[in-house]
């Protein structure tokens, strides 16, 4: 029982490493704090739902570590003699595949493409996470900082 609990804890820790920060308009990066930015008023012209894909770790390090841990735990908890080596190989391969799929799923996040027209007449397109909703005709603020441009109410 103890080995199963340890296995679950390790698996959850490895999958947590795949979490990604997508730059919410409600969250400021450390480099933006105590720095002046600019603000401009605008009107929403159109919005469209998009999917934001984070850059992935193409080295495969997460899958490799997960496969190694899975193989080790599988060989220690399943089978005896030569059966434990087969169990280790199977659990290692399975955990590597699972961690790769979890990483792919967690690297996608819902977002919005927001087209705005500034009071100066410029038309801009801003993409950001969908944690604020906008509709055509909404009066919004364009906030510019070191991290980029955000649309907010």
Automatic annotation (TrEMBL):
Q: Which PROSITE patterns match?
A: PROKAR_LIPOPROTEIN
Keywords, sorted A to Z: Plasmid, Signal
Annotated signal sequence range = 1-18
Q: Which domain of life, per UniProt?
A: Bacteria
Q: What is this protein called?
A: Glycine zipper 2TM domain-containing protein
